[in-house]
Amino acid sequence: MQKIKNKSGFFSKRLFEKIEYLIGEYEFDTAEKMLKRLLSNTNYDNKSRASFYSLLGKIRYLTGQFSAAKRYFNTALKLHPGCYEANYNLANVYMFEQNTTMAAKLINTNLKLNPGNTNILIQLMWSYVLSGNNKKADALYKKLVKEKKLEPQSFADLAMAYVSKGHFENARKIIFVALGNFPDSYIAEDTLYEINEIEKNYKDYRKEIFFKNIGRINFLPQTYTSALRMIVEGMSLRGYFRFEIEKAAEFLIFLNNEKFEYLNPKLLAAVIEYNISICIGEEENMRNIILNSYKVNKKTLTELMQQVNLIAANKNYELCDEILSEYDEQFGNEEPFGDDNE
Q1: Which of 313, 330, 323 has the alpha carbon at shortest distance from 246?
Q2: 4 φ, ψ to 5°?
Q3: What's the pTM?
Q4: Percent helix, strand, coil in the chain (nearest 5)?
Q5: Phi/psi of residue 253, each to 5°?
Q6: Which of 21, 67, 107, 270 could form a disulfide with 294 if both were Cys (CB 3.0 to 4.6 A apart)?
Q7: For residue 304, what are the contacts with CB-CB under 8 A and spacing of at least 6?
Q8: Closest-CA residue to 235 (of 337, 132, 131, 313)
Q9: Phi-psi bin for 332: left (phi > 0), alpha (psi -120 to 50), beta?
Q10: What letter would DSSP give residue 332?
Q11: Rg (CA), the chain
Q12: What residues contact residue 98 under an 8 Å CB cut-off, 6+ apart?
C-alpha cells in the first residue's frame, strides 16, 4: 500500500496497515471506529478519503451487509474513480449477487488502470464463468496456470464459480490441478470436499424432492414443473438446507392446488425462493442474487409477491413458523446461513 498524502504530509502507512490487519483479524468494530475518526478530519484529500470509504465498504462486505458495502464503495469511486480497492471489491459484490454485467464494467475499468494485475485477471476469469463465457475463462485460466500466478485460494474461487453454475467436473479438474501444484494445501482439499458434498446434495435433492413432487402437479404442469426444477436445482447450488428446499417445493404445490395462474416459471420460482429468504431473515442479502439468478426485475417480483400474499397469507405464516422450528430443532441457537451451512 503506497503512502496516502494529505495537506500536512503523509497519512501513516503503518496506521493504514494496522487497520487492514484489524480487518484481516475480524476486529471490524475497532477498524470502523478508526476509519470514521480519520474521515472526520477534513485535511485528507479525496484520494485518501476514497481509501477510507473503500475499507469501510470492505468491512460491510465481509459482514454480509451488501447494500451498505455498495454505498461505501460508490462513495469512494465518486471521490476517486481510479480507486483500485473500491473497483475490485465492488465488482466482487456484484459477482456475489450474480450481476455479471455490472461486475464486468468495474473489472474492465480496473484492468485498464492496472494492466496485467493478477488479482484483477483472476477476477475477470471468475466473471467469465458466471456469465457463461467458459471458453474465455478456460483460455485465461491456462495462461495464468502456465505463468504460475494462481494460489490455492484462486483455484478454489474459480472452482466454486463453476459449481455455482452446476459444472462439477470443471470444478474438480481445477482443484486437481491445485492439489498437484500445492499438495499440502488444506484450502484445495477442503474445496474438493465441498464440491463433492454440493454435487451429492444436488443429485439427491433432484431425485428426492424434484421427482417426488412432479406427480403432485396437476394445474399448468409445464409451468409448475419448470419452476420446481429451477427451485430445487438453484437452491441446492446456493447452499440452502434440505428442509428449506422441501418447504419451497411444498409452497409451490400449495399454489398449484390453489390454481394460481402464472405462466412465467422463472418468476414463479423466484417468488418462492424469495419467500423462503424472508422466512430465514436473509431477504436483503438474497434479493439481488435471486433477481439476477432468475433474470427477473425487482418491480415484477414485488408485484407477484403481492398477488401470492393475497391467497397465501396464512400459508406463509405456517411456512415461516415451520422453518424456524426446524432451525431450533436442528441447530439450536445457531443462525441461518452460519458456518456449518452446506
Answers
A1: 323
A2: -105, 120
A3: 0.84
A4: 75, 0, 25
A5: -65, -35
A6: 270
A7: 262, 267, 268, 271
A8: 337
A9: left
A10: T
A11: 22
A12: 130, 288, 289, 292, 293
